[in-house]
Amino acid sequence: MSDIRLYVVDTSYLLELYRVDHCSDEQAHKRVKNKFAEAIDSGERIYVPVPVLYEVANHVADIKDSSNRKRLAKQLSQTVKSALEEFVPWTITHLTDEADISALMAALMTHAEQFAEIFSIEKLGLTDTAVVLEAERLRKRYRSDNLRKYHVHIWTRHQAIKSREPDIEANQFV
Questions:
Q1: Quick check: 21 and 63 in contact, CB under 8 A?
Q2: Nearest Cα residue to 60 out of 22, 88, 93
Q3: What single string gives the DSSP state of each residue in 26-59?
Q4: pLDDT one-digit tens code per residue, 106-165
Q5: Which domains occur in the chain, in start order?
Q6: CB 163 within 8 A of CB 17
Q7: Entry pTM
Q8: I need a surface site. Which of 14, 66, 110, 115 has the fewest CB within 10 A?
Q9: Distance between CA atoms of residues 13 and 19, nearest Å
């Protein structure tokens, strides 16, 4: 039986990966960069929910140094393009497996309701909600069988989000 790992990435990991000013430190950047490299080299699956990309872009837009802001914005844009066209280095996910707009709107409503009723009480935002619910969606979608055993993890620097991952990650970095 082969083990397949699926990682849902939170904003905090992308801030470290891109070394966003005032949102990253060098040691954390190295650890996160290595985790991404190892996962990609191993053929593991990495998922980034759309709200995470918007949140990272907001942090990039706040960078005071205009040349660094422009460089990181371009790097993020190129990565998004690659992910959309080739699913490299990760897969960008939206709120549901369905592709039509009514299904997306229904999923957004569900996310907003769960944010209001559950996650906001735990001081988790709507993007955090999207990350947790994406991990839960993947856990339901990928069931282990006789040939494969799936493990769904959340990559985040926030313990409250990490505590909600479907499967406990062995070498976690929070």
A1: yes
A2: 22
A3: HHHHHHHHHHHHHHHHTT-EEEEEHHHHHHHHHH
A4: 878 888 898 899 988 999 999 999 999 999 999 999 988 888 899 999 999 999 999 999
A5: 2-162 (3.40.50.1010)
A6: no
A7: 0.90
A8: 66
A9: 10
